[in-house]
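Human: We require from you a protein record containing the residue sequence and its fold in token form, and nothing else.

Assistant:
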Amino acid sequence: MILGGGVGNIVQATPTIQAIASEKWIVDLKLECNSSKDIFEIFKLPCVRSIIKGDVTEQYDYQLNGPFTSGKIYKCKKAIRPNIHYAQHIPEARIYFSMAVQMGITAKLPDAKIVVPTSGYDPPKGSVAIYPGSKHNWAMKRWDKYDELAKQFKHVVLVGTKKDITSHGDPTWIKESWKWPKNVETYQGTLSEQAYTISKCDIFIGNDGGLGHIAAATGIPTFILFGPSSNIKNKPFTKHSYVVAIDLECRPCQFVKLNGKSIFDGGKSDCPNQMRCMKEMSVEYVLKKIKEITK
């Protein structure tokens, strides 16, 4: 299987990888992405025979090319691409599974999964991981009240890249700088180290982004705050992942166009409804949703 895109997209493919392997197929994985160098470590699942880092030289019965890949065909009897297109009403994990269905796979999809690393930073017991970022040019995904929410917990570990933690993305709709309370610390290890650290926290709270999928795939309760992007399409594919969003007629606007132009897209911050989906999501509302699950 050949996969591309961001780390979150690849995590969304892991249920399909597991389903194929459960029906006695040998699965090799080639990643076409620009993510962290240690990305291979967390995707070397027990059901994956090997991760190919160079060209594909072996001949396969099937070559599955996921979205965001080059489309290059290697030696194979049959090449398959998804036959379901991206839409805000279809879980992304189902897009990948459409390739397995074309192979004749009938297994049910398990939860998304990564290999949780065995070393990294151990936060204090009872810590909450907060991810205030997203891809830098997808700043419309970001909520603006994490610093206020952080005051509600005993200890918080901010995870993500330096830009995730220190900025609001570019272009951004958020005007106020973060004012983090004293109970907050930051951790900017490698992707592998961050996965380990997140797995040691009680819960994870963050925006719709790759690290949210990593968090859910480690097995901890994961709360994703959704604004313009689709919670149906983008919710992590695990039983312990939870959506936090407010009910507005205008959301989600992912894949929606206004006057022929996408409302929500990379490099945009000009929401016609002034980002109500994020601005009107209060700290009290988010906290209530989390406590309903964790009590």
In short: The chain has a mean pLDDT of 95. DSSP finds ten helices and 13 strands in the chain.
